[in-house]
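FORM 7B: Structural annotation worksheet

SECTION A. Query
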Amino acid sequence: MSSTASAKNGTWRNWGGNVSARPAREVAPASVEELSAAVRRAAEDGLTVKAVGSGHSFTSIAATDGVLIRPQLLTGIRRIDRDAMTVTVEAGTPLKRLNMALAREGLSLTNMGDIMEQTVSGATSTGTHGTGRESASIAAQIRGLELVTADGSVLTCSEKENPEVFAAARIGLGALGIVTAITFAVEPIFLLTAREEPMPLDKVLADFHELWAENEHFEFYWFPHTGNTNTKRNNRSAGPEKPVSPVAGWFEDEFLSNGVFQVAQWVGRAAPATVPAIARLSSTALSARGYTDIPYKVFTSPRRVHFVEMEYAVPREALTETLREIRAMVDRSGLRVSFPVEVRTAPADDITLSTASERDSAYIAVHMFRGTPYQAYFTAAERIFTAHEGRPHWGKVHTRDAEYFSSVYPRFGEFTALRDRLDPDRRFQNAYLRRVLGS
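SECTION B. Predicted structure
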């Protein structure tokens, strides 16, 4: 059983604990042929089909009362092509396993998100991303896809083969078919030097353009109720390797960032009045540090404190204004927000429903500790995001519908037309897709 999402008495739950579903049946196909057969059988029985990954989405994008496909047997690397510099990997492979396997081969993805528990297909289908000046989301690094479509047939796509499917299916929301294999562009493994340091929020916002322009990967965390941030810059390095020492790593990444943080969240949930004081303490607990290591050890970190999250992409030039509005909203609302707000960037890409589709983007993510009421905070934040034509992450909490998306995605109609062609009977439909894509 995956440690990230759980199933008890036939009920599937996501990692955040805010979504559950009771599928009619579960299937764990061991081959593409078995998956095709499961899709055809579902059609005969009049059931819808959804594949789930590790349950790291906070939306009900994977929930179904039909056939739930678990991809844990569709894992592993199919082939590495060193001439083309690509790797083809089965859809159920966790990013962690892919990253470790590539490192052993002296290879790496160019960019990645900040956790690696998700499956490669779940992460890419929802638009998971890290931060980057030139390098974009995980899906933007895809060079080819194989998917099982509604009639059970296997379709492959790339820039040359079925290019209109390739344009959409890299971030396909599970609406166009079930992804069975992904071919990623890779490069020879490299070193990154990370510089983490506290910085006042006012300074970060005043200097944001320079911080973005001067670093390959820049991000920061702002602690609500304080004027403090923790910044992180990752840049390529000639070396030598200087990893975080095991003791410092345990203290900073496990004890402070997970252990103490978990206790602080429990205290804040039990006594909301203590949150501002805890935030001031938390925001000063982490001191500056630098280290140099291979990419996945720098980009990703463990996240053991369970939370619920909303994240929106706004045009990059709207970032500072949007964040100032979020800060003013928190200050005057009486809300008690115990989780930092995370800010990252991505360059424009050419994927139909990518949150960075055709515009340079900044991402603002708001979080609440699991079990804390989050609706008031998220509703107020969403009002600000949407005023800036924000695009919500497909796997994180939001209330937007197809009408809204057709106004913020120039190519929205292109995606829905392709869906009509590939899945006319809505074999892959669920309540979430009905809302975000229309029926």
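SECTION C. Observations
The CA atoms of residues 78 and 89 lie 5 Å apart. The chain has a mean pLDDT of 92.

SECTION D. Sign-off
Analyst initials: ____
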